[in-house]
Design goal:
A two-stranded antiparallel ribbon has the order 1-2. By secondary structure, it is mostly helical. The chain is globular. The termini are far apart. It folds into two domains: about 45 residues; about 150 residues, Lysozyme, CATH 1.10.530.10. About 75% of the residues lie in helices and about 5% in strands.
C-alpha cells in the first residue's frame, strides 16, 4: 500500500509539473505573439506620416495630377512652405491648385488671373504684393496669402473658398454666390479625397 501510495504521489507530482511546464510554454507563446502583434501595430502608420508631407505631396502631385519630376518636387516644397508661412493645410492648397489651374501655370485671358493659383493683380496689389504672381512658384505663396486673408475675413474654410472664387466684395454683397458654392463643393470634394489618401495605412516593416 505504501508503495502504491508513493507511486500515486509521484504520478500526481509529475502530472502537476507537466501542467506547470505547459502553462509556462503557453504564456511564452502568447507573450511572443503579443509582442509581434504590437510590433505590427507600432510600425503601421499613415502614408503621409511614413513619407513626410513634402514627399507625399510630390508623389501625389505626380500620380494624381500628372505633373512630372522635378517640377512636382518644387511645387510640393513650395506648397509645404507656403502652408507653414500662412498656417494653411498643404492638402487644401493642393486641392485649390487643381481646381484653379490643374497644375498648369498660365494666365486666364478672360479673368486675367495668373499662375497655379489664378491670383488676380487687383487683389495682389492691395493685399499681398510682396510676392510676384507672374513667378511660377511665388504665385503659390500669393495664392496661399489670399487663402489666409479670406479665412481671417470669413472665419471658416467653406466661406473662405467661396470668397477665393468670387472675391470678398461679391461674397459680402451676396453676388455670384451660386458660382462660389459650386467652386467650394468641388474643392472640398477633392480636399476630402486627398485627406483619405493621406490616411491610408502602410506597413513600415
Amino acid at each position: 500500500m505504501n508503495i502504491l501510495r508513493k507511486v500515486k504521489e509521484e504520478f500526481c507530482l509529475g502530472f502537476a509539473f507537466y501542467l506547470w511546464i505547459m502553462a509556462v510554454i503557453i504564456v511564452i507563446v502568447a507573450f511572443t505573439y503579443g509582442l509581434k502583434s504590437l510590433g505590427s501595430v507600432l510600425t503601421e502608420t499613415t502614408a503621409i506620416e511614413s513619407a513626410g508631407v513634402e514627399e507625399w505631396a510630390r508623389v501625389t502631385i505626380e500620380s494624381r495630377y500628372g505633373v512630372r519630376y522635378p517640377n512636382s518636387a518644387i511645387i510640393a516644397k513650395v506648397i509645404v512652405l507656403a502652408g507653414e508661412e500662412f498656417g494653411q493645410d498643404p492638402l487644401l492648397i493642393m486641392a485649390i491648385i487643381n481646381q484653379e489651374s490643374h497644375y498648369k501655370s498660365r494666365t486666364n485671358p478672360r479673368s486675367k488671373a495668373e499662375g497655379f493659383m489664378q491670383v488676380k493683380k487687383k487683389w495682389w496689389k492691395e493685399t499681398c504684393h510682396k510676392y510676384d504672381i507672374s513667378s511660377k512658384y511665388e504665385n503659390i505663396f500669393a495664392g496661399t496669402c489670399a487663402m489666409d486673408d479670406y479665412f481671417k475675413k470669413t472665419g471658416n474654410i467653406p466661406d473662405m473658398l467661396v470668397a477665393y472664387n468670387i472675391g470678398i466684395t461679391n461674397f459680402e454683397a451676396d453676388v455670384n454666390l451660386l458660382d462660389g458654392f459650386r467652386y467650394r463643393d468641388e474643392v472640398l470634394r477633392e480636399y476630402r479625397k486627398l485627406i483619405d489618401l493621406s490616411k491610408i495605412s502602410v506597413d513600415t516593416e
